[in-house]
Design a protein that fits this description.
With about 300 residues, the chain is α/β, with parallel strands linked by helices. The chain contains ten helices and 13 strands.
Length: about 300
Amino acid sequence: MSTEGSRRSDDWLCEQQTEGIRYCLRVKDRLVHRRTAFQELELAETDDLGRVLTLDGKLMLSERDEPFYHEMLVHPALLTHPQPERVLVVGGGDGGTLREVLVHPSVTQAVLAEIDGEVIDACRAYMPAVHRGALDDPRVAIHVGPGETFLPDHPQAFDVILVDSTDPIGPGEALFAEGFFRSCMRALKPGGLIALQAGTPYLWPEELGSVVTRLARLLPHVHVYLGFVPLYPSGMWAYVLAGLRDPQGELTQVAGRYIERGLRTHYYTPELHRGALCLPRFVEELVAQALEQARR
């Protein structure tokens, strides 16, 4: 199935988020709709959020609010690290995470490991406002293939690993497994960090809990922080920052590094970074239970 540039009147793009919740956007133009070797890919122009990418019927990003997600995935990890030079992005074929990585002047190489080359091609062609040339930056090396098979061949290779994955179903399921996290740990340089999205604790608490438990069995420092992404289920979105160095110990350096590196952001600020680590009580309890599970 493949359609390019089809138009319909009063057309809607909908994601079934739970059995009782559906989120819909009115579509002006269907740009791409095809079945790749791994998933159903769709790009559409919407009335309110600009161009939108969906994979297997799940809303991945919109032009309007993608900085809310990409900046919060990238900058807490890269500003926690004093000198990130080599960064791996697993998933993220739209190029938004790469874009934010490359604004850090110390980065000499960013590797993109994306399982689906058709996502990269479609976003390169139809989402220039998101990648802004990052997919073709000379500092970027693109590996088309599963991240879980790429990592074992790169021991102690990366200062930061960013997992910009889909939900833990289909092609994204392997990126939430303990074996994958173990490979990430081995691919980090001494003092390295891993950051990943972990869904919404409001609707899917088990997803965040399982990520925290699995990482805490492998790495000494695991921290959860929250961001707001209007497009995503409930709007409340969780991220996990973990590693061999304690991210909390670097918080006093974040504001200075933000200025020194000349960052200009739409959503992220160093003050927001600190505030994002302050969790609502129900998330605190969820994280505490997950950490306790890891110690058993």
